[in-house]
Amino acid sequence: MQGILFALVPMVAWGSIGFVSNKIGGRPNQQTFGMTVGALLFASVVWSLVRPEMSTDLWIFGIIGGMLWSMGQYGQFQAMQYMGVSVANPLSSGAQLVFGSLIGAIAFGEWTKSIQFFLGFIALSLLVIGFYFTSKQDSDTRTVENRSDFKKGFSALTYSTIGYLSYAILFNNIMHFDALAVILPMAVGMVLGAMLSMKFHIRLEVVVLKNALVGIMWGIGNIFMLLAAAKAGLAIAFSFSQLGVIISIIGGILFLGETKTAKEKRWLSIGIACFVIGAVLLGIVKSS
Fold first, then answer.
1. In whole angstroms, what is the distance from residue 136 CA to residue 263 CA?
2. Where are the bilayer-spanning segments (predicted)?
3. Is 266 in contact with 136 (CB distance < 8 Å)?
4. Domain range spanning residue 78?
5. Other C-beta atoms within 10 Å of 173: how many?
6. Which are the contacts of 199, defined by CB distance < 8 A and separation ≥ 6?
7. Alpha helices in the chain, H assignment, sequence order
8. Which of 128, 130, 245, 258 has CA atoms 20 to 30 A from the CA of 97?
């Protein structure tokens, strides 16, 4: 029971990042920079308490991974402004799950049993269906401007997914570091990546400082993800963390005023159900 409660924290913390940051406001580069400043503050506190052993490799690859993550987050914030949080977040999470799982299975041999391929295929199929329904728009209300914004949103999601996947592959498949040790070098890389997106025209404006709260939320989610995996196992921790898309969708509609037609609400419900079942199945595959 304790492990499940721990797993709820990253679900809520990570799922709330999109609508909380967009409620605070700011341009995508300001949101990213503010978030990374908060993450660096959180990582510094964790490092001072834990005092893990550090190495040159840890710093080098941690910083590289953080810069890749920053690229992914910047693209996601851009996509949210074009498509809305309730659409961009599930699409981003779904893309990461689908392509990340395929790369892990094909390139790194993570799936070795027939049951993993069977459940994995079903899970990925459900995620693709979820992709379709969460991004589906009512043709009666679609305008030329909406179509243009969606194209820009998909473009932003493309390089966002590349950044996120590169970061995940680096830490999960190539380099294996203790999460509490790598969090500080990664946070440094995150800030550098965000500064790069701002072309190093750094201004600590109020909206940037407010977005630091989002970075602290991200850090808290990371810590509780580790606790959940230790208490309840990777399957529970992974599955629950991915269900944060539900929080994003609900938050976007309730707190940001993103409107949906009756048809779009039905399609969104189908998409959510597919994401939930697909994520849970992938969690089972990872633990098999």
1. 9
2. 6-25, 32-50, 56-75, 87-109, 115-133, 154-171, 177-196, 208-228, 234-255, 267-285
3. no
4. 2-287
5. 15
6. none
7. 2-24, 28-50, 56-83, 85-107, 114-135, 144-169, 179-197, 206-232, 234-242, 244-255, 262-287
8. 258
Return the DSSP state at 243: T
Residue of 25, 18, 45 lying closest to 249 (CA atoms): 18
Residues 6+ apart with CB under 8 A from 209: 34, 37
Q: What is the separation of C-alpha 131 from the centre of its chain, rounded to a whole number of angstroms?
A: 15
Region of 39 (left: φ > 0; alpha: ψ -120 to 50; beta: rest) is alpha
pTM (2 decimals)? Answer: 0.89
49 burial level (CB within 10 Å; 0-12, 13-18, 19+): exposed
- How many structural domains are present in the chain? 1
**Chain-centroid distance, C-alpha 209:** 21
Instruction: Please answer whether residues 68 and 249 qualify as being in contact, where contact means their C-beta atoms are separated by less than 8 angstroms.
Output: no
Q: Tokens for 66?
A: 């953080």
- Tokens, residue 181: 């040790």
Tokens of 39: 């993450």
Write out the H or E segment, with its range, that includes residue 26. Answer: none
Length reported for the chain: 288
